[in-house]
Specification:
OB fold (Dihydrolipoamide Acetyltransferase, E2P); five-stranded mixed beta barrel; elongated; mainly beta
Amino acid sequence: MRLLTAIALCLALALFAACGDDDDNSGNGGGGDDDATLAPSGPHVRGEIVNFEAPVDDADGGMRVDGELEQDTVYDRAVATFNDETDIFRREGESDVEASADDLALGQIVEVTFTGPVAESDPVIGTASKIVILADVVAEEEPPAEATEPAPEGT
């Protein structure tokens, strides 16, 4: 009986390990290995927040980040959830200053580092351990008001 239990446990562990890491690069949105250890000290994705949902009550917040695959990133786009355990910073010069989820907004440029496993889809989906706000929302310039001629009198 113990032998059957040991064999079943070994098979379960082998299946679990086989499902964890996929090296076919089909879902990372831009090439490179799917192993997040490629950027151990850097972000996994860098780009613009194109969709944003602030956390409500005990629910996690979420955002989609679209960017480009760079030498120090692993993905070019991602959906990231964030919670109370996510470290959020704002880059000011050469240092990162503590920020909060209230500081995140649509249109900002951010770096996201994931924790734990990610869903290898396109875009990749994971939980952020760290978010760094690199640039705030850039307001689009309003077009100049068109000059209008006054209406002729008597019309």
